[in-house]
């Protein structure tokens, strides 16, 4: 039997509306843009991947347009004609010729895993060694920018039994205003919910030291990326003084960043994101570094659509500990899905598919409707 080969890679930029504006420190989202990858193999199997960022170039160094161009121009020629079933060899070929570009890599690694899972009749979680959980608890982000709207939204999510962990996006205005906003939401929700904040790098070290104290006093459980990503020592100093644990997010742009942060004692919690490590296998390398260093884990998102969300979920399902749960709610922020079989959220959890590959089937009509031309 001849080995199946990779025949082609096709990238599509898909723009989907959000259910409401989503306000982060650096950008307000009115829609989300997904890069969908279709990797076709000589045995007729297609693997699907996704690379998604937030706000063009506002969040990270890759934009949807650069991801598409780089996959089309640089990744595809390296992969076409290569064995489709050897993911180690395919990713090593990319490692030898491509620097950085972890978002684009993540789409490629995801599509290879999806194809191989379909080929072997195994869900991606099983391909990665096997799931130790069937569902993942999912946080919701309150980011309307308005305190009473956010409280109403949180109450609705509790009533629906969809979320009982809330992450508040702060950092775009004066810290005192943000702290009052967060404290009001925590007061309203009390012990019924875990309230956390994401500052998206907006504060200086000096502001962070005072603000983290106030947030801890207000009952906040976790503080994500309060200061700019690059200064490991400053992160360690803020972390040492904060009453609530600090989580590294933007600080991790590669597996090597995870190692440096762990070595520098910069944060007791890591946000894991497939896009920022280079795929579902790559993110597990960061997770294992954290585990070995006694750092707790959180399953993060770049607000991917259903493909990227389920790719993350399969990887996170294999981890022995995921102390801070996940925020894999990306599909719920969008008014439309490009899958026939949309992800299942029930009883505060995202259910991890049990069918081969990622367990996704593209809805061709919707894909065409929302695909950028
Ligand atoms: C981020 O910075 O964590 C994740 C959830 C959300 O609302 O924004 C993202 C990005
Ligand atoms: Mg974050």
From TrEMBL:
Q: Which PROSITE patterns match?
A: MR_MLE_1 (PS00908), MR_MLE_2 (PS00909)
> What InterPro entries does UniProt report for this protein, alphabetically?
Chloromuconate_cycloisomerase (IPR013370), Enolase-like_C_sf (IPR036849), Enolase-like_N (IPR029017), Enolase_C-like (IPR029065), Mandel_Rmase/mucon_lact_enz_CS (IPR018110), Mandelate_racemase_C (IPR013342), Mandelate_racemase_N_dom (IPR013341)
Q: Which SUPFAM superfamilies match?
A: Enolase C-terminal domain-like, Enolase N-terminal domain-like
Keywords assigned by UniProt, alphabetized: Aromatic hydrocarbons catabolism, Isomerase, Manganese, Metal-binding
What residues form the catalytic site here? 169 (proton acceptor), 327 (proton donor)
| One Gene Ontology term of the molecular function aspect | muconate cycloisomerase activity
- Domain spans labelled Mandelate racemase/muconate lactonizing enzyme C-terminal: 147-245
Which domain of life, per UniProt? Answer: Bacteria
Q: Record's CDD domains?
A: MLE
Instruction: Give TM regions.
Output: none
The record, for NCBIfam families, names:
mucon_cyclo
Family to which this protein belongs = Belongs to the mandelate racemase/muconate lactonizing enzyme family.
- Would you tell me the protein name for this molecule? Muconate cycloisomerase
Species per Swiss-Prot/TrEMBL record? Phytopseudomonas punonensis
Taxonomy of the source species: Bacteria, Pseudomonadati, Pseudomonadota, Gammaproteobacteria, Pseudomonadales
């Amino acid at each position: 039997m001849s080995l199946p080969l990779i025949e082609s890679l096709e990238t599509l930029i898909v723009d989907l509306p959000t259910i409401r504006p989503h306000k982060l420190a650096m950008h307000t989202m009115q829609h989300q843009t997904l890069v969908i990858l279709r990797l076709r193999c000589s045995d007729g199997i297609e693997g699907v991947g996704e690379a998604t960022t937030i706000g063009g170039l506002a969040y990270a160094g890759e934009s949807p347009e650069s991801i598409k161009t780089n996959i089309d121009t640089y990744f595809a020629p390296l992969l076409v004609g290569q064995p489709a079933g050897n993911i180690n060899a395919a990713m090593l070929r990319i490692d030898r010729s491509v620097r950085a570009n972890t978002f684009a890599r993540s789409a490629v690694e995801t599509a290879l895993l999806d194809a191989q899972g379909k080929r072997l009749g195994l869900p991606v979680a099983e391909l990665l060694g096997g799931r130790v959980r069937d569902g993942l608890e999912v946080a919701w982000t309150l980011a309307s920018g308005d305190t009473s709207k956010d409280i109403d939204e949180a109450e609705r999510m509790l009533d629906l039994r969809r979320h009982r962990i809330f992450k508040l996006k702060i950092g775009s205005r004066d810290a005192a205003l943000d702290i009052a906003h967060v404290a009001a939401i925590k007061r309203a929700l009390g012990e019924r919910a875990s309230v956390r904040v994401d500052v998206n790098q907006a504060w200086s070290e000096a502001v962070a030291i005072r603000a983290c104290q106030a947030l801890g006093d207000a009952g906040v459980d976790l503080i994500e990326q309060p200061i700019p990503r690059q200064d490991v020592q400053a992160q360690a100093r803020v972390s040492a003084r904060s009453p609530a644990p600090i989580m590294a997010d933007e600080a991790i742009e590669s597996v090597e960043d995870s190692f440096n942060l762990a070595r520098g004692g910069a944060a007791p919690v890591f946000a894991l994101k497939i896009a920022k490590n280079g795929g579902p296998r790559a993110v597990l390398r960061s997770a294992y570094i954290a585990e070995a260093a006694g750092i707790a884990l959180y399953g993060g998102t770049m607000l991917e659509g259903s493909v990227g969300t389920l790719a993350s979920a399969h990887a996170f399902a294999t981890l022995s500990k995921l102390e801070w749960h996940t925020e894999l709610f990306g599909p719920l922020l969008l008014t439309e899905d490009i899958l026939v079989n949309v992800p299942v959220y029930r009883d505060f959890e995202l259910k991890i598919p049990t069918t081969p590959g990622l367990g996704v089937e593209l809805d061709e009509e919707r894909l065409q409707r929302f695909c950028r031309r």
